[in-house]
Amino acid sequence: MLLSIRWLREFVALEVPVQDLAHRLTMSGFEVESISEIGPQWDHIIVAEVQASAQHPDADKLTVNSVYTGTQTHQVVCGAPNVRAGLKTALALPGAAFPDGLVIKRSKIRGQASEGMLCSSAELCIGDPDGGILELDGRLTPGTLLADALDLRDTVLDISITPNRADCLSVIGMAREIAALYDLPLQLPVYATPQGGPACADMIAVDIQAPDACPRYCAAFAGDIIIAPSPLWMRRRLENCGMRSINNIVDITNYVLLEWGQPLHAFDYSLLRGKKIVVRAARSAERFTTLDNTTHTLPAGALMICDAEQPRALAGIMGGLDSSITRETNTILLESAYFKPGSIAATGRALGIKTEASQRFEKGVDINGLIPALQRATALIADLKAGRAASDILDHYPAPIEAPRPIEVSVATVNKTLGLTLTAETIACHLARLHMHTVATGPGALAVTPPSHRYDIKTQIDIIEEVARLNGYDTIPVTYPVVPLCSPERNITREVGEQARTLLTAAGFSEVINYSFQDPNLLSALRISSDDMRSDPVRLLNPLSAAQSVMRTTVLGSLLNNLQHNLRANRCPACSFFEISNVFMKTPEGTIIEKRMLAGLTYGMQYTDTWALAGRDADIFDIKGCLETLLNGLRIVSYRFETGSTEAFLIPQSSMRLCIGDTVCGQCGTLDPEIAEFFDAASPVHVFELDFNILCAYYVDHRSYTPFSRYPAVQRDLALVIDKTISAADVCAALDSFKNSLLKQWHIFDFYQGGSIPAGKKSIAFRLIFQSDDRTLTDAEVNKIHDKLLASLRVQLGAELR
């Protein structure tokens, strides 16, 4: 909200620096977002008098003028038709800058020197924009700064008003708050009742057919209306507060809205049929054209203001085109009504319309502020000589709303909540400044009745907040809670999740987060058999769509949907995703179990072509390597990969089970090509899905450090000929079972079959690393261990040295 300080000072005698006011407002819950000074933009523009005006010798539409500024005379070339000798106007001297970027300089125009510019109303954004150069009061003194001569200086605060404080969306609303903050009297004017006009009740009748949405409707009549521009002071106030001037009558309604916070609407009375106002709900598929010449199909329940024949306004939001104020308007009906916030909010949302009026009605207006707003409007009509108002106001209030009830407040509760030691008298004094009526009901007990404009005050804690604001948040003492210090309990699930995310992200994967819903057709696409627990998902009673109608039983389906979405959008030729999330399955007994899973996939080019290496697609060993990196990073050591996954969606020869200890943790492998094609994948897709809870169970949450040996390592190669049916995993298991502290590590570096290798046999070569922590090993020691290892492998596997 934009708040004019000059306007504010009409209601509260505030004499503090603006910066102090901004700080005080911010500390009381009204954040001041900016402070704008109005006036400095006119500091190079002064009042000047045209002493002589002559035709330009070389231009028919230009004049050469002698302009007096109080101390000297300037020659100025001007093209305005209303320039003449004796005219007082505004002169922009060299150096003056305008909002459009124009900077005034001494120049020659058609050969004649020009030492400034005579300013139009449009250039200065004041006065009549169609009136040529600005014509000022002849009593003004040449040389006076224009901003001072016209009293244009002001300061405007941009204040953030919270949704619960709609009572402060007005100058008077903010004046109430500021008067309370500084303990100053609020000076509300008393408006004189118009005399001699017709009785409003004789001019219009009101029929409220929707009392739940409009419990009160007030109206005032005015005749002999003269439509004209508003005076400069009113236009400037509207513009400073972000509103555009239209004409005197429309400007009066906007002025009252900004001043009192009560939206008004002016109807052309001569266009109202039957001299009747009907407040009703819109009929089915009813159409209505608003002031902006837009025709709307109204939603059911939209509140309408009608005459005896047709709708005339969209209640609380916007008037109708057919009853708007025009230059021919001679009589008007001013509406001031109370519309329930829910009704206006629903209609505005359905039609996509938001206006200054609807914003206030949506948040709530003071039902007792309707008549003061009309009194202010009729007083302005009289003051501006814009017409003659009726001598009374029509007030249709068939079922008055119950006045605010007293709220019981405990002084002890106030002090306990705020950490203060306030007395009942101090609390009552603070609340009185906010126009709350306070009565002592007992020792340390108060009954507080909020005013009608504070509809946000409903409970004791609301009263306590007001006491804190008025007393000052900065007076609340700083206290520290007395709590026992203890180490927080470790959350292994979260810890493993964070480490897994770090490890997989470092391996080139991107984390995705999907909904827990999925398409039931995904299960058949993944060939989940009917005897699998995952084939019977939990169905949603109210799904977002048919494609999200069941709770997912596997995370892989969601990842494959992500892959398909990216491929169809041509986002990337290669991608790697992972997700840590829950799946939901039904047990044979009908209960639902929730299980945390870690799933991932990789697709496309793993490496692009370089000068040294040719690019290649990802394969099963890339996904296996990522899992090894993950398991090693989690310090899980007792894992192994076993061939032959049981998943139907994986290629049997290119898949494996991950086992940790004696438990199957999950599966990994290459997706069946037909399934990959179903998800628009042209290259192999490699996937994994692991039981996250098993990872947590085997996670080692401490690190152990072993110093590097200072002694050299000895490397030996061991090439074995074994039966073709013996897997490399079997050989690795046999090596693992060989217990010798000097054998530090080993790995496979060669595989060969055919040639000199007998049929039914194959050759596997291992590189063995021997090292001692306390001495240099001799060849004899290493040979002895090497021979024992070979003998062990010969016994376990029938292996022979190649």
Biggest sheet statistics: 7 strands, mixed
Whole-number total of structural domains: 6
**Cα-atom radius of gyration:** 42 Å
Query: Which structural class fits the helix and strand makeup?
Result: alpha+beta
How is the CATH topology of the largest domain named? BirA Bifunctional Protein, domain 2
Alpha-carbon distance between the two ends: 89 Å
Strand order of the largest sheet: 26-29-30-36-35-34-33
Q: Do you know the CATH architecture of the largest domain? A: 2-Layer Sandwich
Low-confidence stretches: none
Describe this structure in words.
This protein is an alpha+beta fold and 802 residues long. The protein has 21 helices and 40 strands. A hairpin with an 8-residue loop joins β38 and β39. The mean pLDDT is 90.
Features:
802 residues; alpha+beta; Phenylalanyl-tRNA Synthetase, Chain B, domain 1; OB fold (Dihydrolipoamide Acetyltransferase, E2P); Phenylalanyl-tRNA Synthetase, Chain B, domain 3; 6 domains; 7-stranded mixed sheet; 5-stranded antiparallel sheet; 21 helices; 40 strands; elongated
